[in-house]
Amino acid sequence: MYLAHLSLNDFRNYTHLDLSLGPGLFLFSGDNAQGKTNLLESVAMLATSNSFHAGADREVVNWQAPDHLARITASIRHREQEEDVKVEIVVFDPTPPSSQSNNHTYRAMPMPAGAQRKRIKVNGVAKKAIELVGQLKVVLFAPTDLHLVDGSPEERRRFLDRSLCQMQPRYYQAWQKYRKVITQRAALLKRIRENQEDPSMLDYLDEQLVTQANMIMFERRRMLASLDERARTFQEIISGGREQLQMLYRPSFAIDAAWDTLEAQGHYREQLREARRREIQQGVCLLGPHRDDVEFLVDGMSMLTYGSRGQQRTVALSAKLAELAYMHASTGDEPVLLLDDVFSELDHLRREYLLQQILQHEQVLLTATDFMKFPPEILAKARHYQVVRGSLSLPG
After folding, report:
1. In whole angstroms, what is the distance from residue 354 CA to residue 317 CA?
2. pLDDT digits over 243-289, tens only?
3. Minimal CA–CA distance to 93: which of 115, 109, 114?
4. Higher pLDDT, 275 or 114
5. What is the pTM of this model?
6. Which residues make Cβ contacts (< 8 Å) with residue 60, sequence separation at least 6?
7. C-alpha distances in angstroms, 154 versus 56, 99, 149, 296, 391?
8. Poorest-confidence range of 86-90, 109-113, 295-299?
9. Cα 185 to Cα 248: distance, rounded to the nearest angstrom
10. Domain 139-332: assigned CATH number
11. Is 97 exposed, middle or buried (0-12, 13-18, 19+ CB in 10 A)?
12. pLDDT-derived band of residue 82, with 50, 70 and 90 as boundaries?
């Protein structure tokens, strides 16, 4: 699987881009704030329909877009299919910041009731976001991923969810439903605390939470079991055989591998009942996948507490390479690898190992501020573009 063509219109600082791609390594270099990350963001949206870089999808719309629309159009090639898959994502922003440019004033546009802010088409047919999942798979490695170990638990949950949502539409659906349940339940807990609702009103939402949480936790556990094995191999190689890595799932619910699906739901339901008083007092949901974490141990020691900066980055690199291998093995499709200026954050040893790995993958899109730091053999194999103010050109 690879991206054969990408077209952008009024996406971030890209007024118009028409880019032919194919298998191999593509290097996009340029100064900061020129559009390198924006380019990778658009590719990632083709996989999940959501931006990894924006708080809200409408932020990807260029402020000066005359029709308040950003459009991503792509052709995706699967080796087992004769024809490319055509994907189009249109994002509408009815309320861009008021601005003036070239004697034109850009103001908010009234939005009809019920109008969609994002439209998706696959091969010309309108689709829901969940139906886009699987058309293109990507693994993103950004500088923030180097803080996978010492960052927040939210970052580690996102690490799991980003892959699982691409691989399993049913996981994506459960994840979306779960987020809605948690939002509704947290609001209800606050109203109960203020004596505005009866605590029994929680029963229905608890049942919804348990159903979706059971599926999410099962898939996270299964993925981590595979990642643990794969990441251990990468860690041994990068550390010269000196370090043994473990990746452990730390859910907020008490779990037991011996429980079957029905037993697990019963135990989770009971744990929610036991936590209800505390949840009402605090007005927050204390149990569920939104409270889960992943722990990284090297030679039995927590890397969050005791890991050096170098060890933490080696673990992060091993985990991301394991994610890439896991997605390939699980789906049969080799994901497009997106590397957003991570080489400047790695030392020589880790940079060299990552370079060796990426050359083995079908399609890699890589950004950097200084392409001269790459070895000549890498530059010889890469198709190189200079990024300046949302435009691409061949380096002079």
Report:
1. 8
2. 999 999 999 999 998 999 899 999 999 999 999 999 999 999 999 99
3. 109
4. 275
5. 0.91
6. 11, 12, 38, 41, 42, 45, 51, 54, 70, 91
7. 17, 35, 11, 15, 34
8. 109-113
9. 28
10. 1.20.1050.90
11. exposed
12. confident
- Specify burial of residue 362 (Cβ count, 10 A radius: 0-12, 13-18, 19+): middle
Domain 1-137+364-396 has CATH 3.40.50.300: yes
Q: Which two tokens stand for residue 136?
A: 């293109």
The CB density around residue 180, as the number of other CB atoms within 10 Å, is: 12
Each residue of 36-52: b (16+ CB within 10 Å) or e?
Answer: bbbbbbbbbbbbbbebb
The contacts of residue 303 (CB under 8 Å, 6+ apart) are 149, 150, 296, 297, 311, 312, 315
> Taking Cα atoms as reference points, which of 137, 40, 76 lies closest to residue 365?
40
CA–CA distance, 10 with 64 (Å, rounded to integer)? 8
**Tokens of residue 280, six digits:** 């009402």
Domain limits, the chain: 1-137+364-396, 139-332
Token code pair at residue 337: 């690898």
Helix (H, G, I), strand (E, B) or coil at 150: coil
47 neighbors 84 (Cβ within 8 angstroms): no
Rounded Cα distance, 389 and 183, in Å: 39
